Amino acid sequence: MGASLLIRGGTVVSPRGMERANVLIKGGKISALTTLSPGADLVIDADALLVLPGVVDPHVHFRQPGMNSEDWVSGSRAAAAGGVTTVLDMPNTSPPTTTLGRLLEKFRLVESSSPSVNYGFHFGATGSNLGELPAIGISSAAPIPTPPGQLVASVKVFMGSSTGDLLVTDIGVLRSFAQEARLISVHAEDESVIMAHASEPDHESRRPISAALTAIRKLLSVGKGGRVYVCHVTSYKEADLASPFYREATPHHLFLTSEMMRRIGAYAKVNPPLRGEQERASLWRALVEGKIDAIGSDHAPHSREAKESTSPPSGVPGVETSLPLMVDASLKGMIRLEDVVRLMSSSPARIFKIRGKGALDPGKDADITLVDPKEERRVDPDALHYKCGWTPYEGIALKGWPVATVLGGSLAYMRGEFYPVRGSAVTYEV
Amino acid sequence: MEFLNRDIVSIRDFSREELENVFAVARGMEKNGYDATLLNGRRIALLFYEPSTRTRLSFQAAAQSLGAATIWFAGAEGTSVMKGETLKDTIETVANYADAIVIRHPYDGAARWAAEITTRRAAKGEKKVPVINGGDGRNEHPTQTMLDLYTILQSQGRIDGLTIAMVGDLKYGRTCHSLAYALGMYSCRIRLVAPEQLQMPSHVLSYLGSRGIECTQHAAIEEVIGEADILYMTRIQRERFPDENEYNRVRGLYRVTRKTLQSAKPTMRLMHPLPRVDEISVDVDDDARSYYFKQAGNGVPIRAALLAMVLGGIS
Questions:
Q1: Is B60 within the bounds of a domain?
Q2: Is the ipTM, as predicted for this complex, more than 0.85?
C-alpha cells in the first residue's frame, strides 16, 4: 500500500472524455493525472493501452455459501481477469442472505477466501424480515454506519422467479421495503403473469415482456425515483416505463438473442429470458439514448451437469466477458468508450453510493483496468476462470481485452498472472 | 408482407412465397433488361465497414442499372478507435443523404441496429430509409442466400426434389447455415461433407430434421458426388486448425479437381460463394458444370430486384 506506482503513457478514459495522461498512485489512492513523469517505485508502461476506472459489477452471484457452481476464489479471479475490481453479490445463496447473522457469516466466508477484487453484498427481502433493515444499516430512517451496516449495497427484492422465502409477491410488503430501504434492487418479473403463461411451449414465452412491464407498473405505484434499481431490463419498453428508476442492462440481453436457445439449449436459459433480435436492438437504443443507467453482468453460473439435467436452472456466467464485449462493441462504433466507462464503473459506484470507486480522480481508490484495444482473440472457455467451465459466448472473436487490473494501487492481475492482492469490503456514503 | 420500404436484415424474415416473388422479379429483369429509369433520382448509400468486392460492386451495378446513384465508403478505417463516430450517428446522418442504406459491418446485429435507427427516425416523421444487410459479423448475409437459391433454381429449374451437397467449413460458415435454413423451406435432400470438427452445428441439423429434410453427413466428396445435383463448395480456413499438417491434410481432401468431376452427373452444377483459395482447381473452370462465376453474376439481378421492390414498389 505504501509503494507508489506510475501508469505511464496510456489513454485515460472517463465519462467526460479521453486524454493521454500518466496516472500516479500513492498509498493506494490516485495521487495525480499528469503529463509529467514523476518518479515511482514501480512503473507500468501503458503505451497504446486504455486506462479505465476499474469496472464495478453491481450484480453477481458467486454462489457461496451452499452452492458449488462458483466460489469466491474462482469468481473473484474471473472478475479481476475481466477488468472488474468491485462486485456486489446477490443474496439468493443457500441459505439466503436474509438476516444479519447470515450476512455476517457470508462476510467472514468471503474474507477467508482472500478475494481478488473488492466486494459488497445485497441483502435479500422476504415477507417477514423488514425488521432486519435498521440492524444492517440500510434503513433510510436510521442508516447506522456500524461495520455490518457498511456491507449492504441494497435490499434485493424478487418479484418473480425466485424460490423459498425470497419471493415477494405482496404489494404491501413491496411498499414497505420501498419505503424503508435506502435502495431496493428489483428482479422485476411479475409472478402472477409468469404463472398465467406457465403452459407456453418455450422459456421465452413463459416469461414474456408483459411480466416485466406489470412488475414495473407495480413498482411505479410504490417506489420513489432514486430509491429503486430495476435489474436486467431486456427492451426499450421496460427501460422507458421504468424511467423514474435506475435501470440495469446485462451483456447477455445486449449481445445474445433467443436464437441461442436453439443453438446451445438450456445453456442459454436465463431469467428474464433472452429476447428476439428486435427487442435486442431496442435495448441498444435504450442504452444509447441514456435510458439505461448501469450494466451488470448478472453472472449466474451453473455446472454443466445442472444445465444438462431434465430441469435446467436459469442463469449464465458473464463477469469475465462483460467488459471485453462492451469494449469490442465500442471499437465497432456501437457506443462511445466514455459511455462504457459511465455504465460500467462511474454510474454503478454512484447509484450504490460506493465510497472511493468509479473514477480516476485524485483521492479516489486506485482500482484501475488496462485494456489493449488491439488485442483480438476468440472467447475460449478454457481461458476463462469460471468454475463452471463454459460460457455462452464461446468462439466469438472480440477485440479489446483487459490486460492488467490494479486493485488499491497494487497489481492484481496481468496477462494471465494473478498477484497476491486481497480485495476488501467496500463502504457506502450514507 | 409488403416489400416497399422493408428492411432486408435476415433470410429468416422471408417466407418461401416472398423469396419466389424476388426471384420472379430478378428473372424478369434478366430476361427483359433493366429499367434504367425505375430509380431515377434515387440515391443508395453503401456503407462498407469491411472490404467485400463482390457484394459492393454488385450492389453498385444493380443500383446503376436501375438509374439510381450510389454514395459509398469502404474500409476498416470507418471504425476509428479513438475518434470514431458511433454507428448510430453515422446512420442518422446518412439517412439524410440517401433513400436506402446497404450496410456491411463487423458487429453481429449491426444491420438490425441500423434498421432500428431508421425506423425510429420514421416514427418521428422523417421518411423511412430501408436498410439492406450486406453481411453483419458472423450473423447474416441474406442477399447472398437469395442469390444462392436463385442460382440453384436457375441452373436446375427447381429446388424441390434436388440433392444438394455442401462441402467445407460447415461449422463456422455463415453462408452454409443460412442456405441450410432457407433450403428447409423446400423439399430437397441435403448432404453435408466436412471433417468431423467442422460439421454442421446441431441447431441447424435439428431445424432441418424438424422440416422433414433428408439430411446426411459425410467425410468425403466422393461419397456424394454421384448423386449431387448441386455441389456447394466453401473455403476451409487455416485458423480452424491447431497445426499446419492437419490443415494441409484436410485441405487436400476437400478439393474439387477434374478427376472429382468424372463421377458427377452431367447436369450437376458446381457452386462456390467465392473467393476461392484452392478448393476448386482452376482447370475445372472450363467444365460445363462449373457455375460459380455465373452465381457471382447473379448478385446483380437479385440485388436489383430487391432495390426495385424496396424502393420502387415493384412486386
A1: yes
A2: no
Percent of chain A with pLDDT over 90: 88
> What's the predicted TM-score (pTM) here?
0.89
B215 and B104 within one domain: no
Tell me, what's the pLDDT at B78?
46
Give the Å distances, CA to CA, from A369 to A83, A333, A418, B27, B251: 5, 21, 14, 57, 42
- Report whether pLDDT(B296) > 70: yes
Q: Any chain A CB within 8 A of the CB of B39? A: no
Average pLDDT on A369-382 reads 96
For B210, the enclosing helix (H) or strand (E) is: helix B202-210
Looking at the predicted structure, is the pLDDT value of residue A146 above 70?
no
pLDDT at B51 over 90: no
Tell whether B165 and B244 lie within a shared domain: yes
Which of the following CATH numbers is that of domain A51-351: 3.20.20.140, 1.20.81.30, 1.10.3370.10, 3.40.190.10?
Answer: 3.20.20.140
Tell me the residues of A at the B interface, defined by beta carbons under 8 Å apart. 11, 18, 255, 262-264, 277-278, 280-282, 284-285, 288, 329, 331-336, 373, 395-396
CB-CB contact of A345 with A87 (8 Å): no
Measure the CA–CA gap between A265 and B215, rounded to whole angstroms: 21
| Chain A positions in Cβ-Cβ contact with residue B86 (cut-off 8 Å) | 288, 333-336
CB contact B255 to A (< 8 Å): no
Read off the C-alpha cell for A150: 457498511
Shortest CA gap B81–chain A (Å): 5
Q: Indicate whether B158 and B195 sit together in one domain.
A: yes
Q: Where are the domains of chain A?
A: 51-351
Give the closest of A285, A332, A395 to B106, CB-based: A332
Same structural domain for residues B154 and B122? no
B146: CATH = 3.40.50.1370
Q: Does the pLDDT value for residue A141 go beyond 90? A: no
pLDDT of residue B5: 95
Res. B7: pLDDT tops 70: yes
Whether B291 is in a domain gets the answer yes
Output the nine-digit C-alpha cell for A67: 452452492
Q: With an 8 Å Cβ cutoff, are A329 and B105 in contact?
A: no
Q: What angle do CA A109, A111, A116 make, to 5 degrees?
A: 115
Confidence at residue A143, expressed as pLDDT on a 0 to 100 scale: 47
Whether residues B291 and B148 share a domain: the answer is yes
pLDDT number for residue B172: 84
Whether B4 is in a domain gets the answer no
Segments forming the whole domain that contains residue B100:
11-140+299-312
Candidate list B54, B121, B265, B289, residue with the active-site label:
B54
pLDDT tens, position by position, A59-101: 999 999 999 999 999 999 999 999 999 999 999 999 999 998 9
pLDDT at B79: 45
Q: How many CB atoms are closer than 10 A to CB A140?
A: 14
Please tell me the total count of domains within chain B. Answer: 2
For helices B87-94 and B110-123, the axis angle rounded to 10 degrees is: 50
Q: Tell which residue, A169, A140, A144, has the closest CA to residue A155.
A: A140
In a domain, B16, yes or no: yes
Burial code (b: 16+ CB inside 10 Å, e: under 16) for A358-383 equals bbbeeebbbbbbbbbbebeeebeeee
Nearest to B201 among A263, A284, A332 (CB): A263
Q: Is the pLDDT at B80 greater than 50, yes or no? A: no
Nearest to A93 by CA among A21, A20, A166: A166
Quick: pLDDT tens for A153-162. 999 999 986 6
Overall average pLDDT of the A324-330 stretch: 97
Q: Strand pairing partners for A357? A: none
